[in-house]
Design a protein that fits this description.
By secondary structure, the protein is mainly α. The chain is built from 14 helices and two strands, in the order αββααααααααααααα. The radius of gyration is 22 Å and the shape is globular. InterPro entries: Homeodomain-like_sf, HTH-type_TetR-like_transc_reg, HTH_TetR, Repressor_TetR_C, Tet_transcr_reg_TetR-rel_C_sf.
Length: about 300
């Protein structure tokens, strides 16, 4: 039997989605506060100056500080260190806190010295998104040994992307645009992987590409709720349940002001159904059902 990672209480087995880690939102919120209060470690693939370097720079800690946790001087700045500091700031304080000035303060360097390594805020966003998606690389499709159907592969990719946003809620806002998304190779790899997962279904390439875009839009659209919940927790220190309790009088007033018969029927099951995880699970299943309708009968089971 699995137990809550915060309080140790036994957990009921979840039939859908990834295994549960916490017994309640209160424990999940406590775990989040503990996580962001501690230095983060980032040791994943980074895009750097026209190429890719594997792992963290040997002289720079994962939170963008020098080895041993001390802030590095301007002479020791690297792209890896700057981006690591930016991601750590986002995790700790939200994306609004990420600026060249704040990163420079974290690294003990001058603001202008950062621009010798990262040319603009736009490039910084690209690199930040690239790093966090690089933390969860999809498995190789060549020699694939996992579930064989296109549906299982798309679901796997969606749940891995959801985990990216679970780990870094602020990222959803950075990738919310599908027309001018960040140029992050590790995120682009998700699009490429999904299109390849649909090969053999008989769909035109354009349709396969659209399915990949729609799937990603669905995932990070719901993930925007994760960022809002994280920001609310950071600023008010109230869990979702606690905040809702404080708003009960306002809810009652709204029900007296307007005729809202469906809202009036809301109870605990409906409240639970509105959590980001439940909305994600429901939306993903319905989206995959819709994609299945597009695929010719002879290829649906492949």
């Amino acid at each position: 039997m699995e137990t809550c990672q915060v309080c140790g209480r036994e957990l009921e087995r979840s039939e859908v989605g990834r295994p549960r880690l916490y017994c309640s939102r209160a424990c999940r919120s406590k775990a989040y506060r503990q996580r962001v209060a501690a230095p983060s470690t980032y040791t994943n693939t980074m895009h750097q100056a026209g190429g890719v370097v594997g792992g963290a720079d040997a002289g720079v800690g994962g939170d963008g500080r020098g080895a041993g946790g001390a802030a590095g001087g301007a002479g020791g700045l690297t792209v890896v260190g700057i981006v690591g500091a930016a991601v750590a700031l986002g995790d700790l304080e939200g994306v609004e806190a990420v600026s060249m000035r704040r990163i420079a303060e974290r690294l003990g360097a001058g603001v202008m010295s950062l621009y010798r390594h990262v040319r603009s805020q736009v490039e910084l966003v690209d690199l930040m998104v690239d790093q966090v998606f690089g933390e969860r690389e999809l498995p190789e499709l060549d020699g694939w040994s996992g579930p064989g159907s296109w549906r299982a592969k798309l679901e796997l990719s969606a749940r891995m992307e959801w985990d990216v946003y679970r780990d870094h809620p602020w990222v959803a806002r950075l990738v919310a645009s599908t027309t001018r998304p960040p140029l992050a190779p590790n995120r682009m790899a998700y699009t490429d992987w999904r299109i390849r997962a649909l090969e053999g279904t008989g769909l035109p390439f354009e349709t396969m590409a659209q399915i990949s875009f729609v799937l990603s839009t669905q995932v990070h659209g719901v993930a925007l709720g994760l960022e809002a919940e994280t920001d609310a927790l950071r600023t008010s220190d109230l869990t979702r349940d606690e905040w809702t309790a404080t708003r009960q009088d306002a809810v009652d007033q709204a029900l007296r002001t307007r005729h809202l018969p469906m809202i009036a029927r809301f109870g605990q099951p409906e409240y639970e159904a509105s959590t980001p995880d439940r909305i994600f699970d429901f939306g993903l299943t319905r989206l995959l059902d819709g994609i299945a309708v597009l695929i010719p009968d002879e290829a649906r089971a492949k």
